[in-house]
Specification:
Number of strands: 5
CATH topology of the largest domain: Nucleotidyltransferase, domain 5
Number of helices: 9
Strand order of the largest sheet: 3-2-1-4-5
Helix content: 40-55%
Order of helices and strands: HEEEHHEHEHHHHH
Shape: elongated
Radius of gyration: 24 Å
CATH superfamily of the largest domain: Ribonuclease H-like superfamily/Ribonuclease H
Strand content: 5-15%
């Protein structure tokens, strides 16, 4: 069981220790020309200052002077440059804790990115340690229960917390965007998801995240988390008031 209270407390107190990450890629199924999906964009956010850094196909291609209709035939070069830049960032931030959304395996996850890097560069990738990875979906399931929102959880959670962002793409929509060479569209979707993760983390810390969970204990936890500071402050104020009254009484009516 994930110790969500400890994690969220540490995120609140030490945001400088955390990076949020998400990425987009080619289809996760067997309809690609290769055996593993190509990476199209990676977005990271440095949590303490909300600064986002992008590693994106359209930007790399432009820097290399490659036109849109030439991207596919030059994709090995573009993707290699993208991943080289990303892993330079990883090396500089390897001690950070990385918050992600179900980036758990070689189909979609850190291992998938590492595999693409090894395939294209023939070098070992700087590894983000498993103990430094925090799955936001798993953290929310630990805090609010497995039924905290219906599947697909990311989209449903966005729907009940301010609405789906206009740049948000579902998996099939990202696949179609790749086929249409709409790399900026894919990148904007990745970017809006990273921003959303930061927003729901903040809402969860404040006890204001909307969920669909019906578990009474989960509801009670949310109420006590949001109200505890006010309750403690109220009790402290009441104790102070009683102490003042007792002091005045003793001064007016000394023994």
């Amino acid at each position: 069981m994930i110790d969500y209270k400890r994690i969220l407390k540490n995120v609140k107190l030490h945001p400088e220790e955390y990076i949020i990450i998400h990425y987009s890629c080619q289809s996760l199924y067997d309809d690609n020309e290769g055996l593993s999906p190509r990476i199209t964009s990676i977005v990271v956010m440095i949590l303490c200052n909300r600064q986002t850094i992008s590693f994106a196909t359209h930007a790399i291609a432009e820097e290399l002077g490659i036109l849109r209709d030439k991207v596919i035939e030059n994709y090995d070069l573009i993707e290699r440059e993208l991943l080289e830049a990303f892993y330079k960032f990883v090396t500089e931030n390897k001690e950070k804790k990385w918050i992600h959304w179900n980036m758990n395996n070689i189909t979609y996850g850190f291992e998938h990115i590492e595999h693409r890097y090894r395939k294209l560069t023939l070098k070992s990738a700087p590894v983000v340690l498993v103990e430094n990875r925090i799955n936001l979906d798993s953290l929310f399931r630990s805090k609010y229960g497995n039924d905290y929102v219906q599947k697909p959880r990311m989209a449903q959670l966005m729907d009940i917390n301010g609405g789906r962002h206009r740049h948000f793409l579902t998996g099939p929509e990202e696949v179609n965007a790749f086929k249409s060479l709409e790399f900026i569209k894919m990148h904007n979707s990745t970017l809006c998801k990273v921003n959303f993760f930061e927003e729901v983390i903040e809402l969860s810390i404040k006890g204001k995240l909307n969920t669909k969970s019906k578990q009474l204990m989960v509801i009670f936890d949310r109420m006590t988390e949001s109200r505890a500071p006010r309750i403690i402050g109220g009790i402290a104020g009441l104790i102070g008031l009683i102490s003042s009254i007792v002091g005045i009484y003793q001064a007016v009516f000394p023994k």
